[in-house]
Fold this protein.
Amino acid sequence: MKPAYRRILLKLSGEALMGEDAYGINRAVLTRIAAEIKEIAELGVEIGLVVGGGNIFRGVAPAAEGMDRANADYIGMLATVMNALALQDALQRAGQPAVVLSALPIAAVVEGYARRAALEHLTAGRVVIFAAGTGSPFFTTDTAASLRAAEINAAVLLKATKVDGVYDKDPLRHADAVRYDVLSYDEALARRLGVMDATAISLCRDRNMPVRVFNIHAPGNLRRVVTGENVGTLVQRGGADAKS
């Protein structure tokens, strides 16, 4: 099946790698996600990937109480590097070439981030995993995903979550929560729906970068999204009035 996008930026939360575990990386989940990424790469899709670190740093969060915010953010960035290396290993074991580019220089472990290198890796068919967020404290990995998506000229930003889209309230707490099929950037900001943080949404709006929010834990969803199926919630300019 022909993909709907030539190049994507996939944003994975660190929690997505935990599965049902309380902490860390679930090997079965990691292997499944790697297999699904390889599957869409084989369709000819060029894939950039940003991963969070909440599965690791959340486990030591009590230790961060009273810590300087910048130092705490650097710990979180290092957690994303750990997740990125695990994803790289899983992809390579699956037979999919992958490279980690870190916004923090860790030359003995990973390549440093450079836009030109990222584009070269993408056109060569490698999955490019962007680690360490933006490399600066006070910015989320959602913002890093929006920034990297713009830098690599991705056609869409895919935000993989544990729920099947964006709701008017937390569906895990409210049985009457209503899911949106389509939203505008301004609606997402005004209603504070938690799609991504305000900086990330604003970056996407400025670049007219569509954002698709979907459940990564439903097997096959990533392929469905990439091949153009209406899965999850689409955030775009004009909301429901715009053409998908």
Residues 7-241 form a domain with the Carbamate kinase fold (CATH 3.40.1160.10). The longest strand covers residues 7-12. The chain has one domain: 7-241. The CA atoms of residues 171 and 177 lie 5 Å apart.
